[in-house]
Amino acid sequence: MGSKAATTESAERVQIPVGVIVAAWLLPGGGHFLQRRWGRGSLLLGAISLMFFLGLALGGRFFHITPGNIVETLGSLGDFCSGLFYFGVRFWGYEAVPVAAPAADYGTKFLLVAGLLNVLCILDAYDIAVGNKS
Amino acid sequence: MLSHFTAALIFAAVTSVVFGVTSKHTDRERLLYGLWVFGIFLAVTLGAAWLMYLLHG
Q1: E strands of chain A, at which residues?
Q2: Is A50 on the interface with B (CB under 8 A)?
Q3: Residue A34, SS3 per DSSP
Q4: Alpha carbons within 13 A on the beta-carbon side of A40
């Protein structure tokens, strides 16, 4: 009984670090920067930026939310996880011309994986914020 | 023009960095894990390439 109460109390005490999560989503490594993990944040920013912008340079396309097409819709969710990179590029009107070229296909995968890798960064920043990692 | 192998290498390098940074607790563990993941990516890429070559000629 006592341990159950203690567990409930400790669960109530955990604050969700919303600022860290949003910063980590908007900018790869942003959650780490906010917590003064400059080295790790820089590595994450560099790696994910490289993948994202290489994807653009190769002419990759973004996925779109398409009712009835789960792959396309999940892909758009992955792209969305790139945060400001995604919004910035969409805002400036980037739209890849569909071409049957392997390089463009690599580009599409790079764009998607950049977003998915950023999800790992968000989770890592969260872990640091709640004290699960240093 | 980026070859398939170069694209795979870049993919492996970037993914290894992120996996290494986000997975472990000390810098040494992160470095070793990143190198390990990169090596596995490389081995699987080369292994799959050889397998396809042997199967299809």
Answers
A1: none
A2: yes
A3: helix
A4: 31
Task: Give residue B51's identity as a one-letter amino acid code.
Answer: L
pTM (predicted TM-score): 0.88
Give the list of residues 6+ apart from residue A118 with CB closer than 8 angstroms, or none: A24, A25, A28, A48, A81, A82, A83
How far is C-alpha B21 from the geometric centre of its chain's CA atoms? 15
Q: Does A43 touch chain B (CB under 8 A)?
A: yes
ipTM: 0.89
Evaluate whether A127 touches A37 at the Cβ level (below 8 Å). no
**B11 vs A110: CB contact, 8 Å cut-off?**
yes
- DSSP type of residue A27: S
List pLDDT tens digits, range A64-97. 999 999 999 999 999 999 999 999 999 998 888 7
